[in-house]
Amino acid sequence: MNRRADVDAALHDARVAAHLPGQFVGQESFMTADAILALARSAGIDADPRVLDACCGTGGPGRHIVRTFGCAYTGVDADAEAVALARERGGGLPCAYAVHTVPPLPIGTFDVVLLLETVLAFPDKRGLAAAAAAALERGGRFACTLEEGMPLTPAEIAVTPDADTVWPVPLADFTTVLADAGLATVSVQEHTPAHLRVVMALLAQFTANRDSIAASLGTTFTDDLLASHRLWRDWMASGRIRKFALVARRV
């Protein structure tokens, strides 16, 4: 298995090239820098809230939010290597990080819980929503991105790399799950066209840099990387999967 730092280094230049100037801030996803800040503003993030970034990865979006708003920020992720990179890169910013499996989350101590580009990986959406609600003060906001669609078919599972981390859900089902956890959805915005543009640009850059990526990370990793981006391109272009940004308030 490749180390997280090696993956980050091997893909960095392609990721930078795939985004418009100023839109890459270390994210490992299809969001842009502007979309990250737009969701943060929708969740009411400014200088005051205590923010928990669940599944923060190497922390690029969180650092972008902290640099912009100056909020109190804690990032958690189950990957110790990702957390180590986040700590290293967050020096000088008011960021705290911890290795933490999600769920559960710390109880009742945050004004905003962020979950960016990761809802997809959780088969148990009810457990995830309950953990987010438990981490929030009353009136706090849960902000996330959602991969919306029906569950993968057996045929789709057979051709999807890491299919055990791909669990789309219909939008109405997800907002019901949130409501059952005491989270009232207050904002829903579709971002499928923007995410499709990013995935197409990433696919073009990863394809152009295939040989160098394979030399660093191996052929199997590189082939799976390209295959997964082709699937996301096709799913979003056809409407099989749609991408949304949601904010829900703990009631």
Radius of gyration (Å): 17 Å
Structural class: alpha/beta
Q: Sheet bearing the most strands, described?
A: 7 strands, mixed
Helical stretch tally: 10
Task: State the strand order across the main sheet.
Answer: 3-2-1-4-5-7-6
Helix content: 40-55%
pLDDT below 50 for ≥5 consecutive residues: which ranges? none
Shape: globular
In round numbers, the mean pLDDT is: 96
Query: What pattern of helices and strands is seen along the backbone?
Result: HHEHEHEEHEHHEHHHE
Number of strands: 7
The separation of the N and C termini measures 43 Å
Strand fraction: 15-25%
A few lines on this structure:
With about 250 residues, this protein is of the alpha/beta class. The chain is about 45% helix and about 20% strand. Strands 3-2-1-4-5-7-6 form a seven-stranded mixed sheet, sandwiched between helices.
